[in-house]
Design a protein that fits this description.
Blueprint (H helix, E strand, L loop, with lengths): L1 E6 L5 H12 L2 E3 L9 H6 L1 H26 L3 E4 L2 H14 L5 H15 L7 E6 L2 H11 L9 H16 L5 E6 L9 H16 L3
Helix pairs in contact: 3-4, 3-5, 4-5, 4-7
């Protein structure tokens, strides 16, 4: 089974992935940030490195999905391939940080890849306001993220909401990351776990 967590930068995906993997005994698959060769360059010069970064993520995420389906295990994944294609790349294009030529090339490659993969059995979306995102980003203190612009985060949030509103690929669970603090409050985590069980096993 494939469970995936979607959400903006700083919404708490990695933390929730770790907590749910520990609780359920699932295999966690994390986003490749520490070894990503483009992230630092991208945040310093978005227009120059946007296409390279998105291609790197697309390749990395595609390999992850193939590995997940071939593993025969229940896996929880930190961020999905769909977020790259429907949110991050279109946002860069709309902000004139990726050329139309590069964006069309990227989308063509994604459309081909998407014919070879299956969507998650359950998608968990962490909905968070921009102040929550900023607070979380500052708290974890990644140097390259200190240059993220507020309008960039807001545009991403708007595109996440549009994507989730039309999401029809499988089961969907929406979590309010502004009010549910799963890393700080065991009751909040318990509430999320109950909702996941209900989605996966129909325990209402």
């Amino acid at each position: 089974m494939h469970i995936a967590i979607a959400g903006n930068i700083g919404s708490g995906k990695t933390t929730l992935t770790r907590l749910l993997a520990k609780h359920f005994g699932w295999d966690p698959h994390y986003e490749d940030v520490d070894t990503n060769p483009y992230l630092n360059s991208f945040y310093e010069e978005m227009q120059r490195w946007s296409f390279n970064l998105q291609i790197y993520f697309l390749n990395s995420r595609f390999r992850q999905v193939v590995d997940i389906r071939n593993s025969g295990k229940t896996v929880i994944q930190d961020r999905t391939i769909y977020e790259d294609a429907y949110i991050f790349a279109p946002n860069l294009h709309s902000m004139n940080l990726m050329s139309t030529r590069d964006f069309d090339n990227y989308r063509s490659l994604f459309e081909l890849m998407s014919t070879f993969i299956q969507p998650p059995d359950l998608l968990i979306y962490l909905r968070a306001s921009v102040p929550t995102l900023v607070s979380q980003i500052q708290k974890r203190g990644r140097e390259y993220e200190s240059a993220i612009r507020l309008d960039y985060l807001k545009n991403l949030n708007d595109m996440y909401e549009e994507w989730i509103d039309g999401y029809k690929l499988g089961k969907l669970l929406i979590i309010d990351a502004d009010t549910l603090k799963v890393s700080e409050n065991p009751e909040d985590l318990g509430h999320v776990i109950e909702n996941i069980n209900a989605q996966l096993h129909g325990l209402f």
